[in-house]
Amino acid sequence: MLKRKEQINNYIIIPSIIKTSNIPAGAKLLYGDILSMAKNTGFCYASNDYFKKEYLVHRNSIINWLRCLKKNNFINVLYDKDMKGKIQRKIYPKIKIKQVNYDTTRNKFKSKVVI
Prior knowledge:
Number of domains: 1
CATH class: Mainly Alpha
Order of helices and strands: HHHHHEEEE
Radius of gyration: 15 Å
């Protein structure tokens, strides 16, 4: 279980182009997680089983959401071999958040999106 401080600092951002798209709600949340995990390396390497446990859904739901994100050109998925020869999936979000600021006058977050 996450400690209170970790829970506060663990959040996702869903770009408005994703939020307003005609894809399942689960796929939108998944994109936010992928984007969050990719902020340091540019890609996310989480497995379907990891996402399945996070979202408490069947593995097929994760597969369908990823397929939907790929079909709508929101992600690229590449497979590489690591140094031990194990195949690793890398999910690259195509829409990235460049900067997030809090606007105190409007009491809301503002962000710059890069496509």
